[in-house]
Amino acid sequence: MRRAQCFAMAALVALLGSSACSAREDGPAPVSRGEIVATTPIAQMSAQDVTDYLTKGGIDTPVRNGVESYRVVYRTIAPDGAATTASGLVVLPRTDSRHLRVVSYEHGTLAQKNAAPSVDGVHHPDQARTIMFAAVGYAAVAPDYLGLGEGPGTHPYTHAPSEASAGVDLLRAARTFTGQRQRELDNAVLVTGFSQGGHAATALAKALQSGADPGFGLAALAPISGPYDVQHVETPAGLDGRVGGGSAVYYFAYWVTAMNRIYHLYDKPSEAFQEPYAEKVEGLFDGLHDDAAIVTQLPAQPNQLLTQRFMDLALNPTGQVLKAMTESDGTCDWTPRVPVRLYAATGDRNVPYANAEHCLQALHSDNATLTNLGDTDHNGSVRAALPGILAWFQQALPAT
Q1: Which of 6, 12, 104, 115 is the most buried (most CB within 10 A)?
Q2: Angle at CA of residue 341, ends 238 and 61, nearest 5°
Q3: CB proximity list for 99: less than 8 A, separation 6 or greater
Q4: Residue 108 near residue 197 (C-beta atoms within 8 A)
């Protein structure tokens, strides 16, 4: 990162809710974090509309009410603490209740801006999963994260501090938004998410418990198949074949290019990537390419993508690579005071089961459990876990 001296404070403010990095005289001005910039209605659905929508999306859950969904653009902070904006999905139940309990759903890995939950309205799975919670009476929010949706710039992929700050600030914006409609959000937040969103969910939950915003606290956490340990699980698995070759290449390319923008891992792409990929890999993650377009322009195996130096750094990280890993690998390094249910599948060849095992060990709490979803693949794990999570949330903190 070119402004490395500000990053440590930026990471702290992301997790603790301070307004900006102020360690430098020429640092960024304070940010009104969570202030609404713009709102756009997406859809109004009756209960039957929601049932039809979820059914088409492969989600078979009870529907109690209709919903209203909105895209909200709000002020937040970049990894260096500078002011920026992000977008997110806010879905309110069409009920008479003025006091709404809230679920925050964190979406999985995607590279294309307009595939984010608040933008893609054509049965996007993460949008449908968010609506699922509102369909039983919760207010449901889903941050697009930085650089996706209508957020400027590029996405800092699996960067825990900005996942947490974007999530906290969307909750702040949602609180204002619901207040404008003579409704209020409960201060206890139910948190879940899938894949990258499992990682983001644990980062957000950690921030909420630490007091990132005094108006919100953590009620329960249920992450699914998250890459909680990049250094000790995800990276070695990507190199030894436990993660499928095409998926591993995509993850390595995305992670290295994203983290380089924060931590300055290399001076030029050819230090990290072999030709002919070095000259085009950064451009593939500009937010305009979808996953299929990216994968077809990358090789089949990581050893065809990464230079020998970066293959070595992947297994034995030092310097900025180690810093990038360790500053986002701590999302499970806290002791929850609320129930936590981790979900993962031993059949997952994208995010190995050991990620969840390491997370459970790091949480080191009788409040935390791990459910093995069995021999299902990565996408199958979220389909298997969500119905149980919804039922658990309804039991632990019912919608009003």
Answers
A1: 104
A2: 100
A3: 183, 184, 186, 400
A4: yes
Where do we find the tokens 């879905």?
Answer: 91
Rounded-to-integer distance, Cα 378 and Cα 262, Å: 28
Tell the burial category of 126 from Cβ atoms under 10 Å away from its Cβ (0-12, 13-18, 19+): buried
CB atoms < 10 A from the CB of 129, how many?
A: 29
First to last CA, the chain: 45
Question: What are 92's strand-pairing partners?
Answer: 68
Q: What whole-number distance in Å separates Cα of residue 138 and Cα of residue 393?
A: 10
Q: Which two tokens stand for residue 72?
A: 């909200």
Whole-number CA gyration radius for the chain: 20
pTM: 0.92
Structure confidence by residue, pLDDT tens digits, 359-375: 999 999 999 999 999 99
Residue type at 344 in one-letter notation? A
Hey, what are 358's tokens?
Answer: 């390491």
Measure the CA–CA gap between 357 and 67, rounded to whole angstroms.
37
State how far Cα 100 lies from the chain centre.
23
Neighbours of 5 (CB within 10 A): 12
Q: What is the mean pLDDT of residues 335-360?
A: 98
Phi, then psi, of 332 in degrees rounded to 5 = -105, 5
**Distances 287 to 114, 147, 185, 343 between C-alpha atoms, Å:** 8, 8, 32, 29
Q: How far is CA 280 from CA 153, 286, 310, in A?
A: 18, 11, 17
Q: How confident is the model at residue 31 (pLDDT cuts 50, 70, 90)?
A: confident
Report the alpha-carbon angle 360-216-91, nearest 5. 95
Q: Is the pLDDT of residue 290 over 80?
A: yes
Q: H helices of 235-353, where?
A: 235-240, 245-263, 281-284, 291-295, 302-305, 308-315, 319-326
**Rounded-to-integer distance, Cα 143 and Cα 169, Å:** 9
The answer to whether residue 135 scores a pLDDT higher than 50 is yes
